[in-house]
């Protein structure tokens, strides 16, 4: 229905201006339109059409209507689709350095994270992806990860000892849990709820939005607000499409993306706050979930326990010492 309405509006614009769009940009993503990524994609559509004076017709396809994330990078290379925003994990085979975002307690807070993404570290990472034949435009937030368990409250690092935690496929996450003598278990995201419910795993790590929407908090007894790791997306564009644009339209794309990124960060924070409020409400009403907020000293104890894994990823073919040190040094 949205496409029909937008199409009618676009047609009306063309009729009044007498000009048809010179370029069509299909933006494929896998989430629903009411998520931070979905809302930011729609914002980008309006902003770029406005900046380009209608010369670029942006068409957003949410909810895997065109491609799932595991197929979209190939589609971008073929210019079958012009834009996408997959999670970092979809890029780590071609650019393993993006695993830097998995390193626990590397980012002091949201402001530090954004400062890093907007710094030369962020640009270096984007350049590595662009060198692989896909234009990397910007980073979008999902959010910081928290820890949960039904075995024991996770207050000190030794509370994790012997517990089985679900992880996605990542050498960094494997090392992170081994550093606190826990047992990392690779498991598809779709199986986490039943794994927690049945006790196949004791706990998991995820963003508030993932915990809330998948109801993980309803099958766990303890949730600890650690903000220890980060999940995000990289917005990318077909190189063939980008190179086909004249310089003024390339500038429009960059400006629209800058504006959309600022909006996406706002949307992500708003969603995180509202969904955390709902988890707290559930905890208060049912008495089935204990929520723990760590003191600065307790956070430091976790940081000390897991940051010892950083040297394992100093190799430039994995993450690189230089990138890690630059990230820590970013103000």
Q: Would you give an account of this structure?
A:
- The chain is an alpha/beta fold and 331 residues long.
- It has one domain (2-329): D-Maltodextrin-Binding Protein, domain 2 (3-Layer(aba) Sandwich), CATH 3.40.190.170.
- It is built from twelve helices and ten strands.
- It has helices at residues 2-17, 36-51, 69-77, 110-117, 120-130, 171-179, 192-198, 208-213, 239-244, 247-286, 296-306, 321-329; strands spanning 23-28, 56-61, 83-84, 134-149, 164-167, 183-186, 203-207, 222-225, 230-238, 290-293.
- Strands 1, 2, 3, 4, 5, 6, 7, 8, 9 and 10 form a ten-stranded mixed sheet that branches.
- β5, α6 and β6 form a beta-alpha-beta unit.
- α2 (36-51) packs antiparallel against α10 (247-286).
- The N and C termini lie far apart (46 Å).
